[in-house]
Amino acid sequence: MREFTEQEQVRRDKVQDLIEKGVEPFGSKFDVTSNSKIIKSEHANQSKEELEELKVFVKVAGRIRTKRRKGKAGFFHIQDKYGQIQIYIRLDDVGEEQYDLFKASDLGDIVGIEGFVFKTNTGELSIHATKYTHLVKALKPLPEKYHGLTDVEERYRRRYVDLIMNEDARKIAFTRPKIIRTIQRYLDNLGFTEVETPILNPILGGAAAKPFVTHHNALNMPFYLRIATELPLKRLLVGGMDAVYEIGRIFRNEGVDRKHNPEFTTIELYKAYSDMYGMMDIAEGLFSTVCKEVNGGLEIDYMGNHINLKGPFKRIHMVDAIKEVCGVDFWPEMTLEE
């Protein structure tokens, strides 16, 4: 059995303290009425005096990311799915029992806060707590604040920690489903039908890749996790489904690096009575539609390049593209030596 670190043991001792106080250490219910994004969008431009007059009451919840306390008051930041917001807590407002819970809290704990929105003397939009509720005790400490989770392999192995510590990772995680939904709507509007094809297959096809192999006990025969969706989708065209697509998981028992994973998601689509130019039109519209929906426009900056995804796109033969970039012309017939 693995021995706990000193910090892990301290946190487990605090779990017992919570139980003895009659506080549920994990999974308390809390009715959230707002979040950091809504509060900032609705009240960031209001003055300190306006907020004092309005007394906007909110109920928020999140993970404690920073904490500083002096005597009978303290400040801390909680993080929800949209970002962070500062909380001001005072013994006189929440009472000794709740303030003791705050004092005993650790970074990473999840708490619920009831209070009103205000601005500090430095102008930071915050919540003045009138009630503090412990929700979930974090049993492991978060990575150190200023360095975060920097090891690439560790980030990939512990995605849940990466999501806590890395704002870019959270942004990607919430953007991905938005992209997928946009693709689905776009293709559905073009008359495509989304389908699901078998993940377990008795034969391989559609790509040249090493498969994951398993055994089907009832049939007493080997099966393979699919390495592509091409063949079953084409069979659906044969069956009369004129336009089909699938967004699904693919499995290839091969190398692992930053750009390759044994399990990944692909999209394949097939349309009867069309050709490569028709598929070009669909692909062009797909990129433009997704970019506009996700980014709010057709222009993006990527790796120092300004890209405009407004159609029509430039269309060029691959051989001409190679000649344009590399200066090598593959159109003339060449000998093997050439």
UniProtKB/TrEMBL annotation:
Residues in Aminoacyl-transfer RNA synthetases class-II family profile domain copies: 178-275
EC numbers, comma separated: 6.1.1.6
Catalytic activity: tRNA(Lys) + L-lysine + ATP = L-lysyl-tRNA(Lys) + AMP + diphosphate
Family of this protein: Belongs to the class-II aminoacyl-tRNA synthetase family.
Gene Ontology CC, one term: cytosol
Record's keyword terms, sorted: Aminoacyl-tRNA synthetase, ATP-binding, Ligase, Metal-binding, Nucleotide-binding, Protein biosynthesis
Highest taxon listed in the record's lineage: Bacteria
GO BP terms, alphabetized: lysyl-tRNA aminoacylation
Keyword set includes NAD: no
Organism: Candidatus Coprosoma intestinipullorum
Molecular function per GO: ATP binding; catalytic activity, acting on a protein; lysine-tRNA ligase activity; metal ion binding; transferase activity; tRNA binding
Annotated protein name in UniProt: lysine--tRNA ligase
Pfam family, one: tRNA-synt_2
Top enzyme category: ligase
